[in-house]
Amino acid sequence: MFQVKVCGIRRLEDAELALELGADAVGFVLYPRSPRYLSPIELERLLEKLSHNHSAFVAVGVVVNPKLEELRQWERFLPLGAWQIHGASDTELNAAAVVRLPVLRSLRMPWPESNPLPAACAYVLDSAEIGGTGKTFCWDTVAQLRQRTAKPLILAGGLCPENLWEALERTRPDGVDVSSGVESFPGKKDASRLKAFLSLAREWFSYASRDFAGKGSTGLWERGKGDV
């Protein structure tokens, strides 16, 4: 599916820059309380323009405690490639059965050992507060979660150019997700920080792909797509 996602995008120029610099996914927040919120209509227009010059990318709709009917309705007209869901227990939302698109579920780390893992094709590991806060979590807890699932793990939560390499070395995730760490202010990306982050991410994943060669790792989408 993707290795590097830039989230919280509100402007077409930021989405285009992220893709040109090497991101393979861009995330859009459909949560009205977020300062990075885009309405479904605004997102539809942005994606229509973005698709004119770019085709090989994943557009991810980020939602919080969504209603089933909302997701089904948005899927009818938004050209998304996946959902990223925060909140919503499996009793409220059986992601494996009710929506058409692949579903990523956000886990507030550390995820308690007593809590079952929700249905998803991959997990986005974030800090205890809903995304875009710039706060990290204890990266050592990722290893514990890795023992519980073979699903792809996407590292998020306070990532920035200054801490990315250490975070990748300590957690060795399948993908990364950045938002506030490459912003000038909420909803506007900083070109120099975005370039620095994506350069480091691409360098590390290129190194990791060689390191994992022959060890059974086939990439995030291949590992996760049969689990939805």
From TrEMBL:
SUPFAM superfamilies to which the protein is assigned, alphabetical: Ribulose-phoshate binding barrel
The reaction(s) this protein catalyses: N-(5-phospho-beta-D-ribosyl)anthranilate = 1-(2-carboxyphenylamino)-1-deoxy-D-ribulose 5-phosphate
Protein keywords: Amino-acid biosynthesis, Aromatic amino acid biosynthesis, Isomerase, Tryptophan biosynthesis
Enzyme Commission no: 5.3.1.24
Pfam families: PRAI (PF00697)
Keyword Amino-acid biosynthesis: yes
Biological processes per GO annotation: L-tryptophan biosynthetic process
Domain N-(5'phosphoribosyl) anthranilate isomerase (PRAI) residues, every copy: 4-198
MF terms in GO: phosphoribosylanthranilate isomerase activity
UniProt KW Isomerase keyword: yes
Pathway the protein contributes to: Amino-acid biosynthesis; L-tryptophan biosynthesis; L-tryptophan from chorismate: step 3/5
Enzyme class: isomerase
Family from the record: Belongs to the TrpF family.
PANTHER family documented for this protein: N-(5'-PHOSPHORIBOSYL)ANTHRANILATE ISOMERASE
Protein's recorded name: N-(5'-phosphoribosyl)anthranilate isomerase
Gene source species: Candidatus Methylacidithermus pantelleriae
